[in-house]
């Protein structure tokens, strides 16, 4: 079911007593769990396994209290049909929310309870921006930087906002503006910038045909211990996107290639420095290197240098 | 439990179980979808065990399983499915218990590629290889087990294992065939920017029933190239003989790489597109 549908159910207090939450937005899931517990007037209990409550749900007792039980990735529950029936059929005034970090749509469990699944997708940029600016007064530009640094994850944004607020409240007499604090904490490294930015600079240097800069940035990435396969995967994807944009003859690049505006913008910064044939060569080189790492023919630690020296 | 084919293997296993000689540690080896899990469950069924413990393959999950093994007093089977991706650390955690299996405990592991398992682990196990299926066995599976109503030709041309038959019918076999035909007609005709969009209908993660399985798509592509090449031979059309012959070579090379553990299938499919376009333009 869509989140909108769940929202309506919460508003009308007509919520099914078994739900499955999936998706990356852990903070949004948490907010919904808290909302549901308020509306249904149930205390929240986090459990390790659904079998822990199999005995208590459905049993009659003077002292039984009803709860909203939250369990994460219980494989046993997902495979044991008898346990599923025992618990779900006997929840009565209790509720069970099963959180899954990944979902296999082929499983019988997923097919049976498909209608109970609520997916919490990454919030879109506009919505995320609004939520952030509700929490803290940051300029539009700084909000965008915060979103990028937190990889558009609402939960991470809230954690970083917490740092800003803590710093501001340290000495209230100074009345530090959030934008000033944000800039300071970002430069200082207190607001963590994932290697992606350094990674993007490296990728840009390769795709703009700047060997010296590429090698320098590669050594920086090495110090940051950025994982090799992640570097190769990102370099591959960006090379492919550049090839698609560079060879696209249509005016509507997004429609022809299926790329997002952000991907097209990044690719356009690198257009024209390599011939299409060179980009194809680079794609093949990366794919073969990745395949060789996985089949044990080449050491992961030398893979990036191997690609750069083969390229130039 | 119905097992299609594998008559000699199941006979051997039945005899071993009957005489009490079934090995305490065994590894079942077979291609994706060949029935490794089905065979493991067949064994568990035949052995009439009290405890059937299916463990994950991470180090912590293996350690939990080993702890359970030492606690159990009843006849138990511990299974580790798809152990190809087991880390060396996880395999090492299994070493001692694979050599000195606790009483009443049987361990069954399944893998697609036996070379992905440490030699020290391999040497402690009895290995059962699932042999290839005959076409009659595959058709028997399609008609009697999953009650498929599609063309037998499609099954015999594309599928080598029951798992592939499942994939084919989960996702519309005829649509797959049509898509492969469309790909052959258009792959070298469209612009470069557009060509990669062919991948949009291919399932790389194995969890989207709206898309086509990559290996099955490639096999369909190859089969159509084979048919077109045969027609070209009859017509004496040398250009098309070379064209479709090159197409078959590209597909074979790509399919070979699909068996590398954790291979990036999306990038591999891009290579397929690039190689076909290179060969056909």
- In helices, the fraction of residues of chain A equals 55-70%
- Number of helical runs of chain B? 13
Instruction: Give the strand order of the largest sheet of chain A, numbering strands 1, 2, ... along the chain.
Output: 2-3-4-1-5
Strand content of chain A: 5-15%
Termini separation of chain B comes to: 52 Å
Largest sheet of chain B: 5 strands, parallel
The overall average pLDDT of chain B, rounded, is 87
Q: What topology, given as strand order, has the largest sheet of chain B?
A: 2-3-4-1-5
Approximate strand percentage of chain B? 5-15%
Question: How does the helix and strand content of chain B classify structurally?
Answer: alpha/beta
Principal-axis shape of chain A equals globular
Radius of gyration of chain A: 25 Å
What is the succession of H and E elements of chain B?
A: HEHEHEHEHEHHHHHEEHHH
Low-confidence blocks of residues of chain A: none
Q: Strand-and-helix sequence of chain A, N→C?
A: HEHEHEHHEHEHHHHHHHHHHH
**Number of helical runs of chain A?**
17
Average the pLDDT over all residues of chain A and give the rounded result.
85
Gist of the model:
Chain A is an alpha/beta fold and 312 residues long. Chain A contains 17 helices and 5 strands.
SSE blueprint:
The complex is a heterodimer of chains A (312) and B (281).
Chain A: H1 3-11, E1 18-22, H2 26-40, E2 43-47, H3 51-54, E3 67-72, H4 75-79, H5 81-88, E4 95-100, H6 108-112, E5 117-119, H7 125-135, H8 140-149, H9 154-170, H10 178-188, H11 196-207, H12 211-223, H13 228-246, H14 253-257, H15 261-268, H16 276-294, H17 303-311
Parallel strand pairs in A: 1-4, 1-5, 2-3, 3-4
Helix pairs in contact in A: 7-8, 7-9, 9-10, 11-12, 11-13, 13-15, 13-16, 16-17
Chain B: H1 7-18, E1 25-29, H2 36-47, E2 51-55, H3 59-71, E3 76-80, H4 88-99, E4 105-111, H5 119-122, E5 126-129, H6 135-145, H7 152-158, H8 162-170, H9 173-186, H10 192-195, E6 202-203, E7 212-213, H11 214-235, H12 238-258, H13 265-280
Helix pairs in contact in B: 1-2, 3-4, 9-11, 11-12, 12-13
């Amino acid at each position: 079911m869509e989140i909108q549908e769940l929202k309506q159910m919460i508003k009308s207090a007509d919520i099914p007593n078994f739900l499955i939450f999936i998706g990356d937005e852990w903070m949004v899931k948490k907010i919904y769990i808290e909302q549901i517990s308020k509306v249904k007037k149930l205390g929240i209990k986090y459990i390790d396994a659904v079998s822990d409550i199999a005995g208590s749900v459905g049993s009659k007792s003077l002292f039984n209290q009803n709860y909203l039980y939250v369990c994460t990735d219980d494989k046993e529950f997902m495979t044991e049909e008898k346990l599923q029936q025992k618990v779900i059929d006997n929840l009565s005034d209790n509720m069970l929310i099963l959180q899954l970090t990944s979902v296999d749509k082929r499983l019988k469990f997923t097919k049976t309870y498909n209608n109970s699944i609520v997916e919490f997708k990454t919030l879109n940029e506009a919505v995320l921006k609004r939520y952030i600016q509700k929490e803290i007064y940051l300029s539009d530009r700084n909000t965008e930087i915060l979103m990028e640094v937190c990889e558009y994850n609402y939960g991470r944004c809230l954690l970083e906002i917490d740092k800003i607020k803590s710093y501001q409240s340290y000495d209230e007499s100074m009345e530090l503006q959030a934008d000033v604090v944000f800039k300071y904490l970002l430069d200082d490294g207190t607001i963590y910038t994932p290697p992606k930015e350094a990674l993007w600079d490296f990728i840009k240097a390769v795709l703009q045909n700047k060997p010296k800069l590429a090698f320098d940035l590669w050594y920086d990435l090495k110090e940051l211990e950025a994982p090799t396969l992640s570097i190769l995967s990102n370099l591959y994807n960006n090379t492919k996107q550049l090839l698609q944009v560079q060879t696209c003859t249509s005016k509507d690049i997004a429609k022809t290639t299926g790329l997002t505006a952000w991907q097209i913008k990044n690719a356009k910064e690198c257009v024209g420095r390599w011939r299409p044939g060179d980009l194809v060569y680079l794609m093949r080189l990366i794919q073969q290197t990745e395949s060789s790492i996985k089949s044990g023919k080449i050491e992961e630690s030398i893979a990036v240098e191997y690609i750069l020296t083969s390229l130039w | 439990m119905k097992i299609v084919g594998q008559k000699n293997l199941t006979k051997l296993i039945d005899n071993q179980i009957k005489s009490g000689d079934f090995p305490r540690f065994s590894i079942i080896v077979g291609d994706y979808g060949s029935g490794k899990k089905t065979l493991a469950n067949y064994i568990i069924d035949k052995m009439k065990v009290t405890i059937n413990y299916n463990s994950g393959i991470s180090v912590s999950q293996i350690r939990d399983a080993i702890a359970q093994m030492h606690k159990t007093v009843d006849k138990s089977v511990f299974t580790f499915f798809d152990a190809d991706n087991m880390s060396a650390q996880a395999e090492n955690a299994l070493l001692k218990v694979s050599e000195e299996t606790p009483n009443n405990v049987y361990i069954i592991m399944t893998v697609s590629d036996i070379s992905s398992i440490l030699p020290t682990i391999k040497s402690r196990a009895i290995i059962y290889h699932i042999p290839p299926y005959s076409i009659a066995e595959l058709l028997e599976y399609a008609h009697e087990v999953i009650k498929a109503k599609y063309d037998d030709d499609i099954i015999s041309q594309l599928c080598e294992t029951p798992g592939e038959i499942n994939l084919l019918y989960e996702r519309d076999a005829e649509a797959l065939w049509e898509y492969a035909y469309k790909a052959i007609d258009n792959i070298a005709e469209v612009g470069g920017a557009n060509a990669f969009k062919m991948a949009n209908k291919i399932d790389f993660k194995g969890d989207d029933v709206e898309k086509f399985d990559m290996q099955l798509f490639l096999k369909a592509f190859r089969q159509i190239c084979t048919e077109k090449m045969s027609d070209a031979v009859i017509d004496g059309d040398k250009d098309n003989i070379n064209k479709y012959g090159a197409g078959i070579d590209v597909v074979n090379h790509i399919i070979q790489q699909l068996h590398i553990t954790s291979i990036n299938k999306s990038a591999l499919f891009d290579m397929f597109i690039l190689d076909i376009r290179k060969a056909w333009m």
